[in-house]
Protein backbone atom coordinates (compact mmCIF):
# COMPACT_ATOMS: atom_id res chain seq x y z
CA UNK A 1 0.00 0.00 0.00
CA UNK A 2 1.40 3.40 -0.96
CA UNK A 3 2.13 6.14 1.56
CA UNK A 4 -0.43 8.89 2.04
CA UNK A 5 0.21 11.89 -0.17
CA UNK A 6 -0.24 14.30 2.75
CA UNK A 7 -0.51 13.89 6.52
CA UNK A 8 -1.27 16.60 9.06
CA UNK A 9 -0.83 15.17 12.54
CA UNK A 10 -1.89 17.23 15.56
CA UNK A 11 -1.27 20.55 13.81
CA UNK A 12 -1.89 23.67 15.88
CA UNK A 13 -1.29 27.33 15.06
CA UNK A 14 -1.79 30.44 17.19
CA UNK A 15 -1.07 33.99 16.05
CA UNK A 16 0.52 35.94 18.88
CA UNK A 17 -0.26 39.58 19.48
CA UNK A 18 -2.14 41.91 21.79
CA UNK A 19 -4.78 39.19 21.70
CA UNK A 20 -3.70 35.67 20.81
CA UNK A 21 -5.78 34.04 18.07
CA UNK A 22 -5.88 30.24 18.09
CA UNK A 23 -6.51 29.36 14.47
CA UNK A 24 -5.88 25.61 14.35
CA UNK A 25 -6.32 23.23 17.29
CA UNK A 26 -4.85 19.77 16.85
CA UNK A 27 -5.81 19.29 13.21
CA UNK A 28 -5.47 15.76 11.80
CA UNK A 29 -5.86 15.07 8.09
CA UNK A 30 -4.77 12.29 5.73
CA UNK A 31 -4.96 12.64 1.94
CA UNK A 32 -4.40 9.52 -0.11
CA UNK A 33 -3.06 9.40 -3.68
CA UNK A 34 -5.82 9.94 -6.22
CA UNK A 35 -8.17 11.52 -3.68
CA UNK A 36 -9.85 14.93 -4.02
CA UNK A 37 -10.97 16.46 -0.73
CA UNK A 38 -13.04 19.61 -0.33
CA UNK A 39 -12.15 21.93 2.54
CA UNK A 40 -15.10 24.08 3.61
CA UNK A 41 -15.06 26.70 6.34
CA UNK A 42 -16.69 29.97 7.32
CA UNK A 43 -14.78 33.10 6.36
CA UNK A 44 -11.93 33.74 8.76
CA UNK A 45 -11.94 30.19 10.11
CA UNK A 46 -8.33 29.53 9.11
CA UNK A 47 -8.56 27.57 5.87
CA UNK A 48 -5.78 29.64 4.27
CA UNK A 49 -3.58 29.01 7.32
CA UNK A 50 -4.25 25.29 7.03
CA UNK A 51 -3.36 25.33 3.32
CA UNK A 52 -0.20 27.35 3.98
CA UNK A 53 0.94 24.86 6.61
CA UNK A 54 0.08 21.91 4.37
CA UNK A 55 2.01 23.63 1.57
CA UNK A 56 5.05 24.30 3.80
CA UNK A 57 4.61 28.06 3.49
CA UNK A 58 3.99 28.33 7.24
CA UNK A 59 5.19 26.31 10.22
CA UNK A 60 2.81 24.90 12.85
CA UNK A 61 3.37 25.57 16.54
CA UNK A 62 2.86 21.87 17.22
CA UNK A 63 2.30 18.79 15.11
CA UNK A 64 3.79 17.16 12.02
CA UNK A 65 3.42 17.67 8.29
CA UNK A 66 4.35 14.70 6.09
CA UNK A 67 4.41 15.13 2.29
CA UNK A 68 4.78 12.11 -0.01
CA UNK A 69 6.10 10.05 2.89
CA UNK A 70 8.68 12.63 4.02
CA UNK A 71 8.32 14.67 7.19
CA UNK A 72 8.91 18.39 6.70
CA UNK A 73 10.85 19.56 9.71
CA UNK A 74 10.96 23.15 10.92
CA UNK A 75 14.46 24.11 9.80
CA UNK A 76 15.10 21.50 7.16
CA UNK A 77 16.31 22.41 3.68
CA UNK A 78 14.06 19.62 2.45
CA UNK A 79 11.08 21.97 2.94
CA UNK A 80 12.13 24.00 -0.10
CA UNK A 81 12.71 20.87 -2.18
CA UNK A 82 9.37 19.40 -1.17
CA UNK A 83 7.56 22.63 -2.03
CA UNK A 84 9.16 22.63 -5.46
CA UNK A 85 8.86 18.94 -6.29
CA UNK A 86 5.89 17.52 -4.38
CA UNK A 87 3.43 20.40 -4.00
CA UNK A 88 1.43 22.46 -6.47
CA UNK A 89 -0.59 25.58 -5.64
CA UNK A 90 -3.60 27.21 -7.31
CA UNK A 91 -5.18 30.36 -5.89
CA UNK A 92 -8.38 32.28 -6.56
CA UNK A 93 -6.35 34.84 -8.50
CA UNK A 94 -3.92 33.31 -10.94
CA UNK A 95 -0.69 35.15 -9.94
CA UNK A 96 0.85 34.48 -13.35
CA UNK A 97 4.02 36.46 -14.08
CA UNK A 98 2.74 39.21 -16.41
CA UNK A 99 5.91 39.61 -18.48
CA UNK A 100 5.95 35.96 -19.56
CA UNK A 101 3.67 34.01 -21.89
CA UNK A 102 1.41 31.23 -20.67
CA UNK A 103 3.91 28.69 -21.95
CA UNK A 104 6.81 30.42 -20.21
CA UNK A 105 4.88 30.58 -16.95
CA UNK A 106 4.58 26.78 -17.05
CA UNK A 107 8.20 26.31 -18.11
CA UNK A 108 9.75 28.38 -15.29
CA UNK A 109 8.98 26.06 -12.33
CA UNK A 110 10.53 23.20 -14.26
CA UNK A 111 13.73 25.13 -14.96
CA UNK A 112 13.93 25.95 -11.24
CA UNK A 113 13.76 22.20 -10.59
CA UNK A 114 16.68 21.53 -12.92
CA UNK A 115 14.91 20.31 -16.05
CA UNK A 116 16.30 21.14 -19.47
CA UNK A 117 14.61 23.86 -21.49
CA UNK A 118 13.49 21.55 -24.28
CA UNK A 119 11.97 19.02 -21.89
CA UNK A 120 10.28 21.80 -19.92
CA UNK A 121 8.77 23.40 -23.02
CA UNK A 122 7.45 20.07 -24.27
CA UNK A 123 5.75 19.32 -20.94
CA UNK A 124 4.35 22.85 -20.75
CA UNK A 125 2.91 22.54 -24.24
CA UNK A 126 1.30 19.19 -23.37
CA UNK A 127 -0.24 20.57 -20.17
CA UNK A 128 -1.65 23.63 -21.91
CA UNK A 129 -3.06 21.43 -24.67
CA UNK A 130 -4.81 19.28 -22.07
CA UNK A 131 -6.85 22.29 -20.93
CA UNK A 132 -7.50 23.69 -24.41
CA UNK A 133 -4.88 26.44 -24.40
CA UNK A 134 -2.56 25.38 -27.22
CA UNK A 135 -3.56 28.34 -29.37
CA UNK A 136 -3.09 30.73 -26.45
CA UNK A 137 0.27 29.39 -25.27
CA UNK A 138 2.28 32.33 -26.59
CA UNK A 139 0.00 35.03 -25.17
CA UNK A 140 0.85 36.96 -22.03
CA UNK A 141 -1.67 36.93 -19.15
CA UNK A 142 -3.10 40.34 -20.05
CA UNK A 143 -4.23 38.92 -23.39
CA UNK A 144 -6.00 35.95 -21.78
CA UNK A 145 -9.49 35.78 -20.34
CA UNK A 146 -9.95 35.10 -16.63
CA UNK A 147 -10.72 31.46 -17.27
CA UNK A 148 -7.71 31.08 -19.56
CA UNK A 149 -5.47 32.65 -16.95
CA UNK A 150 -6.72 30.25 -14.29
CA UNK A 151 -6.26 27.25 -16.57
CA UNK A 152 -2.68 28.39 -17.25
CA UNK A 153 -2.11 28.76 -13.50
CA UNK A 154 -3.45 25.23 -13.04
CA UNK A 155 -0.94 23.95 -15.60
CA UNK A 156 1.86 25.81 -13.82
CA UNK A 157 0.87 24.06 -10.57
CA UNK A 158 1.15 20.69 -12.33
CA UNK A 159 4.45 21.48 -14.05
CA UNK A 160 6.61 19.39 -11.72
CA UNK A 161 4.07 16.56 -11.35
CA UNK A 162 3.31 17.19 -7.67
CA UNK A 163 2.05 14.54 -5.29
CA UNK A 164 -0.36 17.06 -3.78
CA UNK A 165 -2.33 19.94 -5.30
CA UNK A 166 -3.47 22.63 -2.86
CA UNK A 167 -6.13 24.98 -4.18
CA UNK A 168 -7.59 28.00 -2.41
CA UNK A 169 -10.95 28.94 -3.99
CA UNK A 170 -9.56 28.14 -7.47
CA UNK A 171 -12.88 28.79 -9.22
CA UNK A 172 -14.16 31.58 -6.97
CA UNK A 173 -13.40 34.32 -9.48
CA UNK A 174 -14.85 32.54 -12.53
CA UNK A 175 -18.27 32.33 -14.15
CA UNK A 176 -20.07 29.00 -13.64
CA UNK A 177 -19.27 27.52 -17.05
CA UNK A 178 -15.57 28.38 -16.83
CA UNK A 179 -15.43 27.21 -13.20
CA UNK A 180 -16.84 23.86 -14.27
CA UNK A 181 -14.22 23.49 -17.01
CA UNK A 182 -11.34 24.29 -14.63
CA UNK A 183 -12.74 21.90 -12.02
CA UNK A 184 -13.23 19.13 -14.58
CA UNK A 185 -9.62 19.51 -15.74
CA UNK A 186 -8.41 19.25 -12.15
CA UNK A 187 -10.45 16.14 -11.44
CA UNK A 188 -9.25 14.49 -14.64
CA UNK A 189 -5.64 14.95 -13.56
CA UNK A 190 -6.38 13.59 -10.08
CA UNK A 191 -7.96 10.46 -11.58
CA UNK A 192 -5.35 9.93 -14.28
CA UNK A 193 -2.16 10.58 -12.31
CA UNK A 194 -2.96 9.65 -8.72
CA UNK A 195 -2.24 13.14 -7.49
CA UNK A 196 -4.10 14.13 -4.30
CA UNK A 197 -5.98 17.43 -4.11
CA UNK A 198 -7.11 19.54 -1.17
CA UNK A 199 -9.47 22.22 -2.45
CA UNK A 200 -10.86 25.04 -0.32
CA UNK A 201 -14.20 26.12 -1.72
CA UNK A 202 -17.39 27.92 -0.75
CA UNK A 203 -19.22 26.25 -3.63
CA UNK A 204 -21.33 23.36 -2.24
CA UNK A 205 -21.91 21.90 -5.71
CA UNK A 206 -18.17 21.60 -6.37
CA UNK A 207 -17.58 20.22 -2.87
CA UNK A 208 -20.21 17.54 -3.46
CA UNK A 209 -18.38 16.36 -6.59
CA UNK A 210 -15.20 15.52 -4.66
CA UNK A 211 -14.46 12.27 -2.85
CA UNK A 212 -15.14 13.70 0.59
CA UNK A 213 -15.58 16.94 2.48
CA UNK A 214 -13.83 18.15 5.61
CA UNK A 215 -15.03 21.15 7.59
CA UNK A 216 -12.90 23.59 9.56
CA UNK A 217 -14.66 25.51 12.30
CA UNK A 218 -13.31 27.10 15.49
CA UNK A 219 -9.91 25.59 14.78
CA UNK A 220 -11.16 22.01 14.59
CA UNK A 221 -11.28 19.89 11.42
CA UNK A 222 -14.07 17.34 11.10
CA UNK A 223 -15.44 15.10 8.37
CA UNK A 224 -18.85 16.06 7.07
CA UNK A 225 -20.80 18.09 4.58
TrEMBL record:
<dbReference type="InterPro" id="IPR015854">
    <property type="entry name" value="ABC_transpr_LolD-like"/>
</dbReference>
<dbReference type="GO" id="GO:0089705">
    <property type="term" value="P:protein localization to outer membrane"/>
</dbReference>
<comment type="similarity">
    <text>Belongs to the ABC transporter superfamily.</text>
</comment>
<dbReference type="InterPro" id="IPR003439">
    <property type="entry name" value="ABC_transporter-like_ATP-bd"/>
</dbReference>
<keyword id="KW-0449">Lipoprotein</keyword>
<keyword id="KW-0813">Transport</keyword>
<protein>
    <submittedName>
        <fullName>Lipoprotein-releasing system ATP-binding protein</fullName>
    </submittedName>
</protein>
<dbReference type="GO" id="GO:0005524">
    <property type="term" value="F:ATP binding"/>
</dbReference>
<dbReference type="GO" id="GO:0022857">
    <property type="term" value="F:transmembrane transporter activity"/>
</dbReference>
<dbReference type="InterPro" id="IPR017871">
    <property type="entry name" value="ABC_transporter-like_CS"/>
</dbReference>
<dbReference type="GO" id="GO:0016887">
    <property type="term" value="F:ATP hydrolysis activity"/>
</dbReference>
<dbReference type="InterPro" id="IPR017911">
    <property type="entry name" value="MacB-like_ATP-bd"/>
</dbReference>
<dbReference type="InterPro" id="IPR003593">
    <property type="entry name" value="AAA+_ATPase"/>
</dbReference>
<feature type="domain" description="ABC transporter">
    <location>
        <begin position="6"/>
        <end position="225"/>
    </location>
</feature>
<keyword id="KW-0547">Nucleotide-binding</keyword>
<dbReference type="InterPro" id="IPR027417">
    <property type="entry name" value="P-loop_NTPase"/>
</dbReference>
<dbReference type="GO" id="GO:0044874">
    <property type="term" value="P:lipoprotein localization to outer membrane"/>
</dbReference>
<dbReference type="Pfam" id="PF00005">
    <property type="entry name" value="ABC_tran"/>
</dbReference>
<keyword id="KW-0067">ATP-binding</keyword>
<dbReference type="GO" id="GO:0005886">
    <property type="term" value="C:plasma membrane"/>
</dbReference>
